[in-house]
Amino acid sequence: MKPSWRKAVVERGSGNGFVLSGAGFCELLTAALEKGKTFRFKAGGVSMSPFIKDGDFLTVAPFTGGRRPRLGDITAVKSRVTGNLLVHRIVRLDGNTCRIKADNMPVPDGLFPIDSLLGFVSHLERDQRRIHIHPGVGNTLVALFSRIGLIPIPLSIMKPLRFVLKFR
């Protein structure tokens, strides 16, 4: 079954998975992160394309050990409207709040208190390759491009930027 934006496939150790709907999935992820564990799942949808693609496996890590949310982080947060999980980018930090936006959508999700963020995407897996998502200049640029509506970036510009974005 192909997941939609309302469902996600949760992997078990053997590679078998099960589908869990939005609010229940968000609760499961929250429980794991509150215990200091990372959480791996299969993403569905195109809202974060081209950086996260439908079918990528994401690993979300908790904000622990003094790790604070940064501009450009791809973060997990519970939607105030649906209760479902959002995995979108921080495009603005203002004191104790941040603005979250999907890279491939024209309108931000809104302002969220920093303490409502559940965790951040530490890496993703695509085509059996692990891609680390490093904080730094690349993610900050992507956040700024997303905030002003320049994302999705045309492929002709994206290829030369790969070294700056540090996707390995």
Structure summarized in a few sentences:
The chain contains three helices and ten strands; from the N terminus they run ββαββββββββαα. By secondary structure, it is an alpha+beta fold.
Care to count the β-strands?
A: 10
Strand content is 25-35%
Helix content: 10-25%
Structural class label: alpha+beta
- The CATH topology turns out to be Umud Fragment, subunit A
Computed Rg: 15 Å
In CATH, the architecture is Ribbon
CATH superfamily: Umud Fragment, subunit A
The residue-averaged pLDDT reads 81
Report on the biggest sheet: 10 strands, antiparallel
Structural shape: globular
Tell me the distance between the termini: 29 Å
Count of the domains: 1
Structure description:
With 168 residues, this protein is an alpha+beta fold. It has a single domain (7-165), classed as Ribbon (Umud Fragment, subunit A), CATH 2.10.109.10. The chain is built from three helices and ten strands; from the N terminus they run E-E-H-E-E-E-E-E-E-E-E-H-H. Strands 1, 2, 3, 4, 5, 6, 7, 8, 9 and 10 form a ten-stranded antiparallel beta sheet that branches. Strand 9 (117-126) and strand 10 (129-132) form a beta hairpin. The model is unreliable at 1-7 (pLDDT under 50).
